[in-house]
Design brief:
With 349 residues, the chain is of the alpha/beta class. It has helices at 2-12, 19-26, 33-48, 87-99, 117-130, 144-153, 167-173, 179-191, 209-222, 248-261, 271-276, 280-285, 299-302, 318-332; strands at 53-54, 56-61, 104-109, 134-138, 157-159, 195-202, 226-231, 291-292. The protein has one domain: Aldolase class I (TIM Barrel). 43% of the residues lie in helices and 11% in strands. It comes from Desulfoscipio geothermicus DSM 3669.
């Protein structure tokens, strides 16, 4: 335990983290993990406060031009019934989010070029003119001009996970993408003033602690405002269908170390973690997370947006989801945030 204690102390007293320090923390055993999680929770409390922020996700299209090996939306998955929501259907889902008290809506899709920059800009404009909502986009890699158009239309945030910054592993997992191009997109988003989110999967085939350390260091260097960290979950209609899923303990340790390195970032308790294990949301909130992202995609298409199988939120009605969240937060003595949750806003202190 001395090595872990020394690594924690170094990080908590301001030492710049490096690969060796992070891999030491990621190697925490069962006896050491409570200390790691407690430290992460303390940093979370000081960095972003006690409050938990809710973001309503609307998954408006499951078409995708990419062929990533791990993703159920991949272009070559011919067994998946595809759908696209109309602009009015998207607005109706946002109406529901606003009526339920959400302060942020996340518009997410596969990489579907059917929706032009102008289409999405009009959607953002309608939402911002109708409601006092923060708008987050998550529609993949696009050009600088598209990102600029959406920012000028009023988009506040953008989520684009790097998945891994190991170039060899990235190329294997995403054969029709290039890591340098994805990272360029992230730098454009920062340049344009988006609150920028990235993130990685834990337990990918070929991944190791050094790989994970590289992801955390990249997100720290980029100064992301949000980091989505969840386990790899194999999908039965992908080339990685027989791969082992990511482990619970390593996912929670990665989340905790990310919190230690990103004290002011928003870290969600991901749906993937809840799918991996019952109580995953609670475990994440005890390990440094401060965001929950309920699914408000219309029920008639929700089961068709399957990046990974058996998503925990496929059939649950939003009202029940909110009831369960409120019950959990009461048990944890964590308040529900009332503000938009923009970067560097601290509530519940």
């Amino acid at each position: 335990m001395p090595a872990l204690d020394a690594a924690l102390n170094s990080l908590l007293t301001g030492e710049q983290p490096g690969v060796e320090l992070i891999t030491t923390l990621l190697s925490a055993d069962a006896e050491q993990m409570p200390a790691l999680f407690a430290a992460a929770n303390g940093v979370r409390r000081l960095g972003v406060g006690e409050a938990v922020h809710l973001r309503a996700i609307v998954e408006f299209s499951n078409y995708c031009r990419k062929n990533c090996l791990y993703c159920g939306l991949r272009r070559d998955n011919k067994s998946l019934p595809r759908y696209r929501l109309t602009e009015q259907e998207i607005i109706e889902a946002v109406d529901n989010a606003a009526a339920m008290g959400f302060r942020t809506v996340v518009l997410q899709s596969g990489e579907d070029l059917y929706y032009t920059a102008a289409n999405i800009a009009r959607l953002i404009d309608r939402i911002k003119n109708k409601y006092d909502l923060a708008v987050t986009l998550s529609v993949g890699e696009r050009g600088y001009a598209d990102y600029k158009t959406w920012r000028e239309a009023g988009a506040d945030r953008y989520l684009l996970k790097q998945e891994t910054v190991d170039e060899k592993l990235f190329q294997y997992l995403k054969p029709d993408s290039r890591l340098r191009e994805r990272l360029q997109c992230l730098h454009w988003l920062k340049e344009l003033g988006y609150q920028t989110g990235s993130g990685n999967m834990v337990g990918l085939p070929g991944q190791n602690p050094t790989t994970l350390a590289g992801d955390i260091l990249f997100m720290r260097e980029l100064e992301v405002e949000m980091a989505g960290i969840g386990p790899f979950l194999p999908h039965h209609d992908t080339p990685l269908k027989d791969a082992a899923p990511g482990g619970l303990e390593l996912t929670l340790k990665t989340l905790a170390v990310a919190r230690l390195c990103l004290p002011r970032a928003h870290l969600p308790a991901t749906t993937a973690l809840s799918t991996l294990t019952p109580g995953g949301r609670e475990l994440a909130l005890k390990s440094g997370a401060n965001v929950i992202m309920p699914n408000l995609t219309p029920l008639h298409v929700r089961d068709k947006y399957l990046i990974y199988p058996q998503k925990s939120d496929i059939i649950e009605h939003p009202d029940r989801t909110l009831k369960n969240i409120n019950k959990l937060l009461a048990e944890l003595a964590r308040p529900l945030a009332k503000d938009h949750g923009h970067a560097c806003q601290i509530t519940g202190r």
